[in-house]
Amino acid sequence: MVRIDDPVVTAQLLASRLGDGDRQVDICPRAKITPSAHDFLRARGVEVVAGGSRGAAKGGAATATTPVRRAIPGVPTAPGSTERSRRFSGIFTPNIVIYNASGGINYKEMERYISWLIDAGIHGLYPNGSTGEFVRLSADERRDVVRLITDVNNHRVPILAGASEANVRDVLAMAEFYAGIGADAISLVPPFYYKISEASLFEYFAEIARNSPLDILLYNIPQFTQELSLNIMEDLLAFDRIFGTKDSSRDLPRITNTMQRLRRQRPDYVVLNGCEEILLPSIIMGANGGTIATSGIIPEIIVELYECSQAEDLDRARELQYRILPLINHMLLGVNFPEGFKTGVAVRGFDVGPPRTMLSTEEGEYLRRLEAEIGCILSDLGYTVRGATGCPVTHLPPLVRR
What we know:
By secondary structure, the protein is of the alpha/beta class. It contains 15 helices and 13 strands. Helix 6 links the parallel strand 8 (160-162) and strand 9. The longest helix has 21 residues, at 361-381. 43% of the residues are buried.
């Protein structure tokens, strides 16, 4: 068996090292496997026995074991079935953007925040999503955010970069840029503002799938864009580049139907849940994990919830799921999404800076009260939070060590 220890593995490198009869390759766990290398491996039918993109444990080391889930009758489970489903399983943090006093990106504080998330054990990073308020950033700023995160990450965890733009040409240009700086895949919402026909929506994603240098995760978020129907998603299974779906519909029946229907044809199809309140039930039903905004505030608890669900420690998982609901409700139902989540990040000790959108005097006062309320909730969960005074006593045990 061929062993490759190079830090970056490309298709050209594989072609120079592998013989015609080689069907397995041992790649250093810390190596970065480029999209062209993945295509080469798939085309040649070569199995990676220790792929560097399969995910990393805390501190960047390769995960030694992956929990084995029991098969669900009638619905193949994606976790562990292919390399892509392993890489995109777990908790991906939709990264907020931190601004400086003049309203620009605060790169230094962003770097500190991203390093903190990785050290806390999150399984992946997700810049330029809804929580990252990508529509409020310029195209250059969106590139800068992903460049910063890939640099800080340094191949420790997979990066799923939002590449939604106004037209196909710009989406592909952004995907090319992200591929060049080391992102692992892109996420795409349906085109926003103009509603288009089902046929046009299929052609939109099909054209991107034919030309994208990176794998694609479809993003269904009907609150903000046109809904992606299961019929269209099923038709798009023909494109191997499209490997899964993030579903933020807040609709558990929709998510379970997505897994049951699409995995009949693609057993490795990745489904990530984007709604904290149904994180545990969606994982129990077979979801790979979630892109969970609350993991940007309490990464330790959200990661533990995922790990307990994988280990079938459902008593602990249920406890965690119920205890985080007050925090979610406070942050989600506040003013001008995602300001509630950014307020939570501020309570954890980061200077998130001013908002990108305008706030009234009353809304500013509300966020200041929200900061105190979030501080009390975090203190009750077991975190040490400055300024958490006058909090109601719940007599509940802490979930984390102080």
